[in-house]
């Protein structure tokens, strides 16, 4: 029997400390009265999700995905900034021609150093293409990070275009709902952001459709919302990091393109890490649900017989951690 940090299917970052039960291939006995195999626990382990994500990102497959995120990051930034550079001057001209505002009131905005000269329709098309390309990378990344990420899973590229399109639509609807909630009373938006946190993972791993993915994410997160909110807040804080290089470079003689490029690079790293974290959260919550189905454990206070019936009914496409590892554990 092979042991040690380099043994297949083990990961020191996953197995160390109290968060060891996060890894789907762990077979250590669980706590008395807990789920069999120790693969799951009653609470989402935030530290295990963060540590598991970081350890997977530095592996060769994770590095390859990071390169893909860099590509779509630069492509998306060029497309988006080019769209703004093409549209904003036209909007400014219309406002000046149809209002009492003067040119001094609306000074022209400096275009991003990464913007290129494009017609608005071309820029819009490029934005859509890069958005779908980025969603494709997200789907592949989730399928890699739900496993051990030591090699590319056989199913990583299966049905990719359809899954990416479904994921893009589902996440777009979720984002619209979140922004509507934030605009209304803030708290509903935060609640919806937590509830739909796992939409992409559900689509990528389980092959769910748009509405089933929204419902499935809502169900997986239920009972763990505060811990998922903690994860979301950490991710939101990390997403502020890409804005720092531009501010720092602005105080130096370096060209603005340097700061913008560094921001894209840092943004790609943060995005890849955030995707990995979501994948690891999904594995934990899917494992808890699978264990609850096996033991028939339900929260009677949350819904009595209705909750028991719902927990006993296995969702379409639902996978246990062992099944996830079997399908996405690498070659």
TrEMBL record:
Regions of compositional bias (Acidic residues) in chain numbering: 297-313, 322-331
> Where is composition skewed (Low complexity) in this entry?
1-11
InterPro entries, A to Z: DUF7847
Where the record annotates domain DUF7847, the positions are 44-285
Alphabetically sorted, this entry's keywords are: Membrane, Transmembrane, Transmembrane helix
Q: Which residues cross the membrane?
A: 66-88, 123-145, 165-185, 191-214, 226-242, 262-283
Annotated region Disordered: the residues are 1-42, 294-331
Keyword Transmembrane helix belongs to the record: yes
Q: What is this protein called?
A: DUF7847 domain-containing protein
